[in-house]
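Email to the structure team, subject: PorV/PorQ family protein model.

Hi all, the expression group asked for a predicted structure before they design truncation constructs. Nothing fancy, just the tokens so they can compare against earlier work. One-line instruction: predict PorV/PorQ family protein, return tokens.
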Amino acid sequence: MRRIGLGLFIIGITFANAYAQEDYGPVNTGAANYLTIPADARSAAMGGAGVAAPGGDHAVFHNGAAALSDVTRRGGVAYTYSPWMRDYESGYSLHCLGGFYKINQRNAILLGFRYFGYPEMDGTGEGVSGIHPKEIAVEAGYAYEVIKNFSVSATFKYLFSDMGRIGNSRGASSVAFDLGVLYKCGINDWEGAGWSVGLHASNLGPKINYLTSKEALPATVKVGGAADLPFLQMHKLTLTADLGYRLSPADVQALSVSAGAEYAWRELVMLRGGYHCGDKKKGDASYATAGAGVEYAGVHLDFAWLFAGHEYLARNTFWVSLGYSF
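Reply from the structure team: attached below.
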């Protein structure tokens, strides 16, 4: 059992070290930190911003209330893959599956699934075969338009952390909740243009109880804004930004800013760029991102790449998303 506890501790430090700068050393940022990784390529390409951007297939991960923001789509589903920290060590991987379905224009159901895999290791954290640590989140939510252009959402998460079978251990689990709010408004005398503001509180719940310790979830509150600005009939510019505050664990409470832009041509080809500014003393690095996407007949393929210095272990990570909306 002590070996499991040590293994969990090493995994937590290793994951947190992806964000920490070498000048400050590793930072233990608690449990389930895979929940802080952007869950789709579009958001990742814009610095991780997404609270107020049109949600669609991945709204359950960023702000469930945004699932109602696009009146032209009834539902959708998308899958995302990211080989996290690929330059540091192979074996870390994030898989996300998200979707939504509008019952009508005022109600929507949200579903999500996240799987984060670690390299094989033993109970002391050394890389050997036999133990396959992994973490899973199953999410279900509901979005409701309270009044015209004002929506709210609530999402329930079941979290499971499996460090492999050693002794009597069968893993640890917990539950968490997300709450979202979104308000959108058109811009007078500018056809197709509009802006939105949103609020999203995520990962609110009890600590995960491991064999030897209890670790806090990465509870975070974000406020965001976005603007859609079409021009010259065939072009559109989307600007978005989030201001976030990490609530727990107490040792890593800090502000962060994510901002990005998307250029779309005929809503067929998209180019994106963004930047995330974090507090490196709290284990949250700053980095730039860029990406692109294509969409045709409801099928969309998106890609994002993360740029950072050598001290950031997640440098050169990428995301690929494939989805269908209708």
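Helices lie at 2-17, 41-45, 59-62. The CA atoms of residues 86 and 317 lie 6 Å apart. Ping us if the truncation boundaries need rechecking.
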